[in-house]
Amino acid sequence: MATDTDWQLTRTFTSTSGDVHWDRLGPPGRPAVVLLHGTPFSSYVWRAVARSLARDHQVFFWDMPGYGTSQMAAGQDVSLAAQGRVFTELLGHWGLADPLVVAHDFGGAVALRAHLLHGVCYRALALVDPVALAPWGSPFFRLVGEHPHVFERLPPALHRALVREYVGSASSPGLHPAVLDRLVAPWLDGPGQAAFYRQISQADQRYTDEIQSRYGGIGVPTLVCWGEDDTWIPVAKGRELAALVPGARFEPIAGAGHLVQEDAPAELTAALIAFLQQPR
To answer: Where is the AB hydrolase-1 domain (predicted)?
Structure first.
């Protein structure tokens, strides 16, 4: 998919973990859909899906603190615990009592924590290759977690090559070069380089261990979508998760890796529209 230079987040919310940039599409008064991105990405990965959903919904999207265009700062708490609290705050700021929620990767854990620990109500929940079940965290994650300050001091050229290789591996067919440029850009300057390793070092499995036993109590309609060629989190985890959530439907996406939004946007959008438009 080609890049999109018009994707901008023009609004700001000051959260307990720093300034959050956000925006919305679609006519007011339509059912609200909130999109959550994963790590190390931003709301940019949702651009095609957001514009499609905005025909019949009011679509809200945001960059989490420490990601994309939102605030990055030394000492910032960007853990799953912090992001769950920020999401709860943001929904209150938007005045959304029971939105439709679509969450990818790390954002899936954020949405699950907000629902299960903070009592946030959803009309329906769609999880796309979410971080939800132990074990997770690659050897690279563990290495960075043990030595974040060493990685923060990598020469810029080596850091750039590492980030490009890492982000590119989330796609099965490969990312358009301009899309890859856009995805890695927030991580390449001084604050961005430190923020990249900060968010990895704080990605602790204990935050999903805390909620995993509660998935059987999820009572909202749930869809689990998964790229069949995901090398970051195997598709078997998707089937396992769908089996744990009562009544959840599992939707595999052929030819897609972990970044389903980039690899198969039409197929993912069709699955989401069919699910979100079901009578509740």
So the answer is: 31-265
pLDDT in tens, 214-236: 999 999 999 999 999 999 999 99
d(CA 113, CA 115): 5
Identify the three-state secondary structure at position 270.
helix
CA count, 13 A, side-chain hemisphere, 202: 21
How many residues comprise the chain?
Answer: 280
Q: Please state whether the peptide bond connecting residue 28 to the residue before it is cis, i.e. omega within 30 degrees of 0.
A: no
Q: Give me the mean pLDDT over the 237-251 stretch.
A: 98
pLDDT at position 139 is: 83
Phi first, then psi, for residue 237 (nearest 5°) are -65, -35
Using one digit for the tens of pLDDT, what is the confidence trace for 11-20? 999 999 999 9
Angle at 44 (CA atoms; ends 241, 4), nearest 5 degrees: 140
How far does Cα 87 stand from its chain's mean position? 12
Q: What's the helix, strand, coil split of the chain in %, to 5?
A: 45, 15, 40
Query: Mean pLDDT of all residues in the chain?
Result: 95
DSSP 104-140: ETHHHHHHHHHHHHS----SEEEEES-S-SSS---HH
Angle at 52 between CA 177 and CA 167, to 5 degrees: 30
Helix (H, G, I), strand (E, B) or coil at 30: coil
Strands 58-63 and 32-36: parallel
Spatial CB neighbours of 127, under 8 Å, sequence gap ≥ 6 = 103, 108, 111, 112, 222, 223, 224, 225, 241
pLDDT value of residue 142: 84
Contact criterion met (CB below 8 Å) for 251 and 273: no
